[in-house]
Amino acid sequence: MTQPAHSTPPFSFTRLEDNALLRGQACFGQDVALPGAWHMAFVRSPYAHAKLLRIDRPELASEDRVTVLTAQELGEHRMPQINPLLPVLHQEDFSLLATQTLTYVGQPVAVVVAPTRELAQTAAAQVVLHCDPLPARTDHDTRTGSDLPVTTRTVHRHGVLPLCSAHVAQVQLVSPRVTAMSMEPRACSAQWHEHDNDKECRITVWLGTQTPSRARADIAQALGLPHAQVRLISPDVGGAFGAKASVSPEDMLTALVAQHLKASVRWTATRSEEFTAGMQGRGSTMQGRLQLDVQGHFTGLAAELRFALGAWLPFSAVVPLRNAARILPGPYRTMALDVTGYATQAHAAPVNIYRGAGRPEAALLMETLVEQAARLAGMDPVALRLKNLIAADQMPYATASGELLDSGDFAALLRQACDKFGYNHERQQQAERRARGEWVGIGLALYVEPCGQGFESARVTLLADGRVIVASGAPAQGQGHATTFAQIAAQAMSCDASQVTVLMGDTEHCPNGTGALASRSTAIGGSAILQACRTALALRDGGAPYPIVVDDTFTSDEAWSSGCVIARLSIDPDTGQPTIERLVWADDAGHIVNPTLAHGQLIGGAAQGLGQAMMERLVYDRQGQLVTGSLMDYAVPRADNMPAIEITSMHTPSPNNLLGAKGVGEAGCIGVPGALMNAARDALSPLGECELNFPLTSEQLWRVMQTRFDKDL
User: Fold this and answer.
1) Which 8-state DSSP code applies to residue 498?
2) Looking at the structure, do residues 475 and 587 belong to the same domain, yes or no?
3) What is the CATH number of the domain that holds 546?
4) pLDDT at 10
5) Residue 712 binned pLDDT confidence (cut-offs 50, 70, 90)
6) In which domain, by residue range, is 519 found?
7) Rounded CA separation 218/231 (Å)
8) How many domains does the chain have?
């Protein structure tokens, strides 16, 4: 059943992590203490596509103690295989260091090792690459003859699309690449532990990653070591957002250089390296057609999705396409569905999961179509949605794409958002403002958010003095997992949170786990902790001796969050400058363990969703050169770009995990962009249906208005 809005579960308290963070006692990538460590810098490709002819190494004084390493010295090593969620026709093995062909600007070609970072970077700049440039394939390029043959395709079909309909809404949307822009760039350090017996050689790697267990496995395979001889520590991480969910060539090479030199080495990316060689997100072109009958019922949805892949594929590269295709048609019923998706490689930086990972694209396409359909049918967009939303009493609901929505009340969410927004009054005010010559729009977006599935692990240790040690297979990158996990354990054990110690991100002390991604950590990771606590309590009550140690895993089907965002946006007719005047949001993330942390996740996601919608865009030219390679050219939201956000919550528990929890971390990136797109289109609707794409810059909006005005003249 649905719990009342604003209900506050017990055991809600502030973040345990903040004391160390505020006192400067945290350990981020550059804080790892490795006395005497060598510093690494990379020689990178200046071309998007070229034949590598030879490498000229600089003549350096012996006292500089600089070493240049290529694949000739380190050996040819490959990136690990990807998650086989979609059929991939062909994938070439991708070398950690380029040997013959360069495939994107920023690709590592050689490693320079020196006593200081500055010396390593200076020496790397002196290495000369002799290359023969080749034509570059850009995103969604249809030219053949490329040496990047990976194309993956997914299809969802249900029913037969009607040959004719009373109303047909059609739209094409471009969602450009963006960068995750973590506060902390990538960083990796490695310490080699040499022993007399080679079989006992070990390595410790400090890596800001969302998946410590998988990263350890990937590094162990590259080094030819058993997992037990590789320790992976993910220290405090200054943001990840999916971009740190998979290992990169630089991560693997740091470990390989440590093994090669039998020494400690470290590498920290510059912001420029993050732009050119870091993992990017989004990058799609979508076409959709929504058909309605005379009563306004959705009779068919057809969509073609084209997603960008980079020169090499991270582990989760195909996840965004898979998610977008399977989420459609979102929270709506439709009699027929025909969705085809393609993802194709380009000579550009890798594309990985980025906060939302296909969910924002599905919501953007569907919600843009719904609002356009309402205008075509002469219906209020709220009324049209209410007519077509899946009903709460139909849950669990099997969608046309074959997914199973576990729980939710979409109509109640829509009504709650409209009540908070004062929808009818806002529409009246909009009409009055338009009569005065103002350009103002109201846009809605509903969304569903699948929150991961599979297993997560936990180890709970009860000590004789009442202390509890919780070790999780899921790490953290700023979400407050230590607080959430301590809260779950304290409530289960009926003890104070101060008695609970939480361990994360260290493969020596934590069980093998899946990781922190896909909005799954509380729902699945938290349930594993609760399950292990219950087992430990049973053992304690049965008289088991201390310490009582319980290793457990929890496996779950997906829980589905949902929400509704309503935005009011005005446009200056002289400059095209958009202003987000109001943002109201009703979210349903199931049972909320810690309302303060959940609220922070919603606001953070909204900021990134706003950034994608209004200002963020990575641009490559036809030669594959990144044009927006610095913060001088790539805009990110600042405090003065953020409107006040009015949030109200429902709490419909999920039946698929012990906590009844659903994901919350990606919601803002899913619902906010679609609402802002619809608000902008609604503001310009007196001019007719306009073509708009992200980002909704003042220039684009002004040009649309001028084009329409010119046609009238």
Assistant:
1) G
2) no
3) 3.30.365.10
4) 42
5) low
6) 454-556
7) 12
8) 3
